[in-house]
């Protein structure tokens, strides 16, 4: 059947017109769901926003140094001689010595499993037992043969972020 059909009666629509109407209804539903209450939120007293990006509660909302808004963890979150797997952020942060922080890719180089923990001075993949150094990501126990790639991190104050 062609999109270019002749109308055969006063109430007949082409497929194109029907789909366009359905799309308009769908768009209206989405826009209505995304719209705010123009009167503000009476329960909390908050006024609606402009719809722009949310301003994080950390960092300088005036546009200054925003390093805090990109913080991965605090220095207190990462134990000396250990580390923390931050899978959602795509990094493992370690502290091999007091005040020395390192970042590594959280995906094991053996078969692509995510590493699961940092314990006993190594970053550990429980899929097949590979262990990596918290100092440089080198392989401490296989079956992995390649080190974890480094991910540069920086510390400003007590906040750790990507460099």
TrEMBL record:
Q: Does the keyword Amino-acid biosynthesis apply?
A: no
Q: Which cofactor does it need?
A: [2Fe-2S] cluster
Task: Please verify whether the record's keywords include Transmembrane helix.
Answer: no
Spans annotated as Disordered: 41-76
Q: Which UniProt keywords apply?
A: 2Fe-2S, Disulfide bond, Iron, Iron-sulfur, Metal-binding
Database matches in InterPro entries: Rieske_2Fe-2S, Rieske_2Fe-2S_sf, Rieske_Fe-S_prot, Rieske_Fe-S_prot_C, TAT_signal
* Role summary: Iron-sulfur subunit of the cytochrome bc1 complex, an essential component of the respiratory electron transport chain required for ATP synthesis. The bc1 complex catalyzes the oxidation of menaquinol and the reduction of cytochrome c in the respiratory chain. The bc1 complex operates through a Q-cycle mechanism that couples electron transfer to generation of the proton gradient that drives ATP synthesis.
Q: Tell me the protein's name.
A: Cytochrome bc1 complex Rieske iron-sulfur subunit
Q: What is the lineage of its organism?
A: Bacteria, Bacillati, Actinomycetota, Actinomycetes, Micromonosporales
């Amino acid at each position: 059947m062609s999109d270019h059909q002749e109308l055969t009666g006063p109430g007949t629509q082409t497929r194109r017109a029907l789909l366009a109407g359905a799309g308009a209804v769908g768009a209206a539903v989405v826009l209505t769901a995304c719209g705010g209450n123009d009167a503000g939120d009476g329960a909390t007293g908050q006024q609606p926003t402009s719809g722009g990006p949310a301003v994080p509660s950390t960092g300088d909302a005036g546009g200054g140094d925003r390093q805090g808004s990109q913080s991965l963890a605090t220095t207190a979150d990462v134990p000396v001689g250990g580390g923390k797997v931050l899978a959602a952020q795509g990094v493992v942060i370690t502290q091999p010595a007091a005040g020395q922080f390192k970042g590594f890719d959280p995906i094991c180089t053996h078969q692509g499993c995510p590493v699961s923990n940092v314990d006993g001075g190594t970053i550990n993949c429980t899929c097949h037992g590979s262990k990596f150094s918290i100092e440089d990501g080198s392989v401490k126990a296989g079956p992995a043969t390649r080190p974890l790639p480094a991910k540069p991190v920086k510390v400003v104050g007590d906040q750790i972020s990507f460099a």
